[in-house]
Amino acid sequence: MMMDDDAGGSKAMSQFLDKLAVMIGNYGCHQIKCGAQASPAQFQQFAKPAAQKAIKIVKEKHPGVPVIYFANGGSSYVELQRDMGAGMIALDWSVDMAEARKILGPDVMISESVDPTVLFGTEEQVWSAVRECIDKAGGPGNCHLLNLGHGVMQGTPEESVGWLVDECKRYRGKDA
């Protein structure tokens, strides 16, 4: 569809994305007006069933494709995300990894972030943040994918990104 749109054929993709952008923008404005954050009860009643339905549709049509679920601002109701049906639950860096692991259990795949501001620190501070996140998840290879929360911030020293990547590859756990 994108290629046809780009070539001057059907404009279905551009029209669809435009309508989607308008709906998402209007919905975002409505959320701001109403307080912008779903309570755990609202999540349970409204967002969770819709997200589970979407996950189920994707998994039924594409069973080999991993599905990762991320609830922006969902750190206050991690326990409600345990049974989303996704292959992995993604959490932001504000969630304590050890607490999330305890709540979700050892068999739930978790993607947990390192605070991106740590990359403005020293090499040892970056290494320490990587190790702490991995250890709190239960150690290397324990159903955990480490990532950088919200990506690399503007002005981040490039060498710091290298320190993070190198330590992720190198670290074998506190008992190694």
Topology:
Layout: H1 2-6, H2 12-34, H3 40-61, E1 68-70, E2 88-91, H4 97-104, E3 110-114, H5 123-136, E4 144-148, H6 158-170
Parallel strand pairs: 1-2, 2-3, 3-4
Helix pairs in contact: 5-6
Can you walk me through this structure?
The protein is α/β, with parallel strands linked by helices and 176 residues long. The chain contains six helices and four strands; from the N terminus they run αααββαβαβα. It has helices at 2-6, 12-34, 40-61, 97-104, 123-136, 158-170, and strands spanning 68-70, 88-91, 110-114, 144-148.
Distinctive features:
about 180 residues; alpha/beta
Please state roughly what percent of the residues sit in beta strands, choosing from under 5%, 5-15%, 15-25%, 25-35%, 35-45% or over 45%. 5-15%
Describe the biggest sheet?
A: 4 strands, parallel
Q: What structural category characterises the helix and strand content? A: alpha/beta
* Oligomeric grouping of the chains: single chain
The helix tally amounts to 6
